[in-house]
Design goal:
heterodimer; A: about 230 residues; mainly alpha; B: about 280 residues; alpha/beta; four-stranded antiparallel β-sheet; about 30% helix; about 25% strand
Chain lengths: ~230, ~280
């Protein structure tokens, strides 16, 4: 196979690799942000904020490179779909970084307050699930594997369930104002993790679009449906 | 020849996997099992292609794939090549234009053609446009006809004060629009364009592409282009041609332009338009 657009395809691969690296970084940031809350660890919280600044910088660079490629190379077919996916992925990863910062800020705000070990355990469980989702979502994209992408809605379901359950855990903390303040902040942490889970499902939908050319919404059963 | 009135559901593929949703719009001209030979050499093989009325169909593909041969078959231009031979049919209003008793001159009046390089006659701008009507014995308002054709070709405002000047006095882009005006002045139903902008600068090219969008309201347009971006910008349907190991051109895939350039069904199409050649 001769590739007469090898320079363009090299650029496209390089852009994809840049974003895959950001996805790896986002996965690590989720772990650090959860640790910052659960240990708690203010140094880790500050590192999450610093790493998000890096992601924001890369976001702008990728956007510029994307615009240049689009204007100069005018991609077609699967290349065009890949460009669409990369634009979407860039935005999604930038927002995932922002959610990690939201979690880190909650760690800073709640530092020194009394805590519920049950809620801590639940936050840890959500963090582990979301990190696994990111790894699976990235792997599906790298392998161009729609079956693996289709795993994501089912993986997201326990994250959603834990997030819904967090309300009850917070109510349990009702008698102690300081504990309640901490617990209400943890609802926001839970919400941020739930949002990251949804964003990974979005990435899986983009992988499906790349492979099929059809834009689809994944439902809770993982069954494809046209949006 | 009567115009085809009934809506006809057409098959857009050439012995390939079926198109997901074949259009049911009116077919203006249709190649059926078309093969063209130059002596012993088969230039194109078994082409089935139905061009939709009042739409722009772009024929794309690598050099030598037969797209110009196909477009020239639509108005019997290949008749002018001594060793050329055609098999199959070109149906225009349900009549095979290669059938017995069909006058090729009448075919070419109803199916006009614009060529790669602007080729105005060595005559005035006015006479270039009026020429076809005069040859056909037009007895009406010749001034009005010339003005109408030049307006449709979006050239009138630029030449209305110098109609007596030579067609050669115009720029390349203007000359090509003059040739388009000349083609449409005889009221064809179909306008064939064989790489009509390949000799023009980018601004003149975009003018022609804009013009095509106006012209398709009145005419069915079939355009051969080497410029895939032009096909993507300007056409409604795209037919991708390739050639076999014996160098006979064949139709790989035909469909809505947005489908061809975003999610082609055939890997061969995908490879060609993304620049990967086997």
């Amino acid at each position: 196979m001769t590739d007469i657009r090898s320079h363009f395809h090299h650029e496209l691969s390089d852009l994809e690799q840049t974003l895959l690296n950001v996805a790896d970084q986002a996965e690590q940031m989720v772990g650090m942000a959860v640790d910052a809350v659960c240990l708690p660890d203010m140094e880790l919280a500050a590192r999450v904020v610093a790493l998000d600044n890096q992601i924001d910088k890369i976001y702008l660079e990728v956007h510029d490179r994307w615009l240049t490629l689009m204007a100069r190379q005018q991609p077609m077919a699967s290349d065009l779909r890949m460009m669409s996916v990369l634009l979407h992925l860039n935005t999604t990863l930038e927002r995932m970084g922002d959610q990690c910062v939201n979690i880190a800020k909650m760690a800073q705000i709640t530092y020194g307050l009394p805590r519920s070990e049950r809620i801590i355990a639940q936050i840890r469980e959500m963090g582990d699930l979301v990190r696994q989702m990111i790894r699976t979502g990235v792997e599906a994209l790298v392998r161009r594997d729609i079956d693996e992408a289709l795993l994501l809605p089912a993986m997201d379901e326990p994250v959603d369930r834990l997030n819904r359950n967090m309300y009850r855990e917070v109510v349990e903390c009702g008698s102690d104002p300081s504990l309640l303040e901490w617990a209400i902040r943890m609802m926001l942490v839970s919400r941020a993790l739930e949002r990251i889970g949804d964003q990974v499902v979005d990435i899986a939908e983009q992988t499906a679009f790349l492979l099929t050319g059809e834009m689809m919404e994944f439902n809770e059963d993982g069954i494809l449906g046209t949006d | 020849m009567e115009m085809l009135e009934k809506e006809e559901e057409i098959e857009l593929t050439a012995g390939r996997p079926p198109a997901p949703a074949p259009p049911t719009e009116r077919v203006a001209v249709q190649a059926r099992d078309l093969s063209v030979f130059y002596g012993n050499f088969q230039a194109v093989k078994d082409i089935d292609l139905a061009c939709i009325a009042n739409q722009i169909t772009a024929l794309i593909g690598p050099s030598g794939c037969g797209k110009s041969t196909v477009i020239r078959s639509f108005n019997r231009m290949n008749d002018l090549i001594p060793a050329a031979r055609v098999e199959g049919q070109i149906l225009f209003d349900d009549v095979d234009i290669y059938g017995p008793g069909v006058d090729p001159v009448e075919v070419r009046r109803r199916v006009g053609m614009v060529f790669q390089k602007p080729n105005p006659f060595p005559k005035s701008i006015y006479d270039n446009v009026a020429w076809g009507a005069k040859v056909n014995g037009f007895k009406g308002d010749l001034d009005g006809l010339v003005e109408e054709a030049l307006r449709q070709a979006v050239l009138w405002d630029e030449v209305k004060d110098k109609l007596a000047e030579s067609g050669y006095s115009l720029s390349g882009g203007q000359q090509q629009r003059l040739c388009i005006a000349r083609a449409i002045a005889v009221k064809p139903e179909i306008v064939l364009m064989d790489e009509p902008t390949s000799a023009l600068d980018p601004v003149a090219t975009l003018r022609i592409e804009e013009l095509l969008q106006d012209l398709k309201q009145r005419y069915t347009i079939i355009i051969v282009t080497h410029n895939m971006q032009q096909a993507a910008r300007a056409s409604d349907y795209t037919a991708f041609f390739n050639m076999n190991s014996d160098r006979a051109g064949y139709l790989v895939e035909y469909g809505r332009t947005e489908e061809i350039f975003t999610k082609p069904r055939e890997q061969t199409t995908e490879d060609y338009i993304t620049g990967r050649f086997g």
